[in-house]
Amino acid sequence: MQTIQSVAEMQQWSSIQKRSGRRIGLVPTMGYLHDGHLSLVRQARQECDLVVVSIFVNPMQFGVGEDFEEYPRDLTRDCALLEQEQADVVFAPAVKDMYPPGYSSFVEVEGEITTKMCGASRPGHFRGVTTVVSKLFHICQPDLAFFGQKDAQQAMILEKMVRELNFPLKIVRVPIVREEDGLALSSRNVYLNPQERQEALVLSQSLQAARQLIMDGERDVEKVKDFIRNIIATSPGAQIDYIELNKADDLASLPRIEGKVLIALAVKFGTTRLIDNLLVEV
Known about the structure:
The chain is of the alpha/beta class. It folds into 2 domains: about 1-175, HUPs (Rossmann fold), CATH 3.40.50.620; about 185-280, 2-Layer Sandwich (Pantoate--beta-alanine Ligase, Chain: A,domain 2). Helices cover about 40% and strands about 20% of the residues. The strands form 2 sheets. Strands 1-4-3-2-5-6 form a 6-stranded parallel β-sheet, sandwiched between helices. It has a 3-stranded antiparallel β-sheet with strand order 7-8-9.
């Protein structure tokens, strides 16, 4: 496995592979890898000739007062895990190389898809995501790029960006990976103390209960939201950011539950904000 830090070197490597007709899979990450990330690498390994994993904690997608400085980082540990998964390249650029002095170019997807849910809670977040991912696409030149369903809104936004800006690649979504007790894997889970970790189980529990309520015939959006809210309220430390039910293909609002629906949550436990979601089709 090769580790590349230089943007120019990564571009050169990718260009050589493309000219050789090799299919490149890219797994963009912010590091501190867990099995959710590694499931993306495994999927890329199955579908591509070469697998590139980027590790870059992107300052542009962190807002004021968020955890950029504290975000967990351990490149040595990450590289050891990726070596076991037979990744071909780890691309780990420095901030100064991705955003040199005077940097002022951005990529932004507008509309309802970016202004609700995490877009409402974290202004500017998705502009940071779309800017850095577009840069990674230009640098690494993937044929396929792999993203987790846990970040469902992000995946939809990036699919829209790829479609509308004619990037010559396909985005592949990979299902959420969970602990045995249901907690969705996240690099931020390390912030949770034991009590918060236990209380966070209410996320997956409320989603599964809401799915059952819908399958039993409930079609009123607000009633399902209230049902979820009441379950989450049983965890005394939970602070709800949002509970949303939207169309699963574009996040458009639903007057009534029908078709394919994304149920999405963002909840804080202590200082740690966690997200989770579930797809339901009726």
